[in-house]
Amino acid sequence: MSDLFDEPDDATPLEPEERDGLLQSWVTTRADLNEAEQASIDKGAAWARRRRGRDMLSEDFVRRLHKRMFGEVWAWAGSYRRTGRNIGVDAYRIPAEVAQLLDDVRFWVEHGTYDPDEAAVRLHHRLVSIHPFPNGNGRNARMMADLLIQQLGRPPFAWGGADLADIGEKRRRYIDALQSADRHDIAPLLAFARSA
Fold this sequence. Notes:
The chain has about 200 residues and is mostly helical. It has one domain (about 20-195): Fido-like domain (Fic-like fold), CATH 1.10.3290.10. Helix content is about 55%, strand content about 0%. The chain has eight helices and no strands. It has helices at about 15-20, 30-50, 60-70, 95-110, 115-130, 135-150, 170-180, 185-195. It is globular, with a radius of gyration of 16 Å.
């Protein structure tokens, strides 16, 4: 069980009380955890796609989507984090930051501020930057971006065509693209989102 909570260097570690929220007793290795989370994510994605046409740009939807994506694995799924992290805003600011982001996205879409791909990728980047949940932020943000881009009539993103939870060259490119976006250069993340 020693490798269960080993994280890549660029991942957000879980606090001990968050680790206690693991619901699946059969999960004893990182591979088991990845398998359990992916099965739950697949169910969450199916739920989200059935809701097509409904307003997904609400704080309630962001939380419910996270709960649907990770609720079979983590007791805290869908709940905002309460502790500081190596990334993200202070925990007390999360609700206001998520609400502001969603207001911004609604404005971008309504006024054509950005083309659809850029609006969705900017949603993804800011949601990751806020880092509202103890874990699963990148996967939740990619799903939100995919749902928005589909709502805007475009195909979902490929996100490098790889499982970005795994350590490797694609994950490194993704992290590098996020860091470029942190420096106000969104182009690498836009390119990565559409790369296969």
